[in-house]
Amino acid sequence: MKFLKNRTVLGVVCIALALIICFAITPLFNASKSSTMKIIRIKNDVKIGQEITSKDIEVVEVGAYNMPSEVLQKSEDVVGKYAAAEMIKGEYVLSAKVSDTPASENGYLYGLTGEKRAISITIPSFAGGLSGKLISGDIVSIIAVDYKEKGETLVPDELQYVEVIAVTDKKGNDDETVTVKPDGEEETELPETVTLLVTPEQANILAELEAEGEIHVALVYRGTAENAQKFISAQEKYLEELALKNEKENENTDKPEVPQKPTQSEIAEDKNSAGNSGENNSEIDKIIIDPENNSDTQSENNSDDNSETEVTSSGESV
Q1: Which 3 state secondary structure label does DSSP give 53?
Q2: What does the alpha-carbon distance between residue 109 and residue 197 come to, in Å, rounded to a whole number?
Q3: Cα 101 from Cα 312, distance rounded (Å)
Q4: Which of 123, 132, 112, 113 lies closest to 216, judged by CA?
Q5: Following CA atoms 155, 144, 235, 110 in sequence, which dihedral angle do they give, to the nearest 10 degrees?
Q6: Which of 16, 57, 75, 174 is such that its CA lies 20 to 30 A from the CA of 212?
């Protein structure tokens, strides 16, 4: 009799559970599956580092069931941000794929303020780009072959000290890229271009050399940012002096000359200026770098060497 009572109780419990599942849990489960939510989806392909605009995204309504919490739902969380990873059309936008700042690989381009320009020049040969050894932060001189079709190979005064901000291969990658061939052999992509941080005047000269001449890049300095700035400051000082000199020459050519008989004091002054000719010519300041302060290039064997390296405007060391 107890056994039957137990079976009866057990059956009632099972029936009650079945009713709860059918009329309570199942409708809730179906409702959760049928519920929808609005999310952000990529409308146009977006490359890494690219700023995302309203034209690149669209708001769509999808099923909310099993949707990751990282999927962004508001357009204001995406528009104006930068792509931290490449996104293709139809892809949902995840919070991890957007950033408030540009991607680090091309962040240097977002640091421009309008005073300087970033311009790339083609490396004509393996040797022309320092055999692929150039890196961001290097100070280089630009050697022009057959400069202005005069048959001369020289370093233009305007391009004695220039900063490298990127070295890029033919695929647009700034970092060294290793490609694995079908046979398993690794092949390193060599740099194709060098991007330099220059003034507008320097950019014009580089564009002319890129179009008409042949360019070689010579390494002048690699080391601390403080020492590198000394070279840049010297180049900027020279460019300022050159601009002032050209401005004065233009002012003199614009003014009509009226012949006048020179005074004795003017004659004496002309003689003095003639004797001092060449002293007022603009030259790039000589930069002296103490090897002990160049932590990036100092070797242990030379730790006690107090010699100094003098860098002249021609890029030679004395």
Answers
A1: coil
A2: 10
A3: 39
A4: 123
A5: -160
A6: 174
Kindly provide the b/e burial profile for residues 28-39, where b requires at least 16 CB atoms within 10 angstroms of the residue's own CB: eeeeeeeeeeeb
Residue 69 lies in a domain: yes
CB contact set of 157 (below 8 Å; sequence gap of 6+): 238, 242, 282, 284, 313
- For the chain, what is the mean pLDDT? 77
Determine the average pLDDT of the residues in 227-235. 93
CA distances for 110 relative to 62, 107, 118, 120, 225, angstroms: 36, 5, 10, 16, 19
Instruction: Give yes or no for a contact between 67 and 92, defined as CB atoms under 8 angstroms apart.
Output: no
Contact indicator for 174, 166 with CB cutoff of 8 Å? yes
**pTM over 0.90, yes/no:** no
Domain limit, last residue, from 65, 100, 135: 100
Q: Which domain holds residue 144?
A: 108-223
Domain end: 161, 194, 223, which one?
Answer: 223
The torsion region of residue 222 among left (phi > 0), alpha (psi -120 to 50) and beta comes to beta
Q: Is 168 domain-assigned?
A: yes
Q: Is residue 246 assigned to a domain?
A: no
Q: What is the pLDDT of residue 68?
A: 85
- For the chain, the first-to-last Cα distance in angstroms comes to 113
Does residue 39 contact residue 68 with C-beta atoms inside 8 Å? no
| Total domains, the chain | 2
Does one domain contain both 122 and 158? yes
For residue 234, being part of any structural domain is answered with no
Same domain, 192 and 131: yes
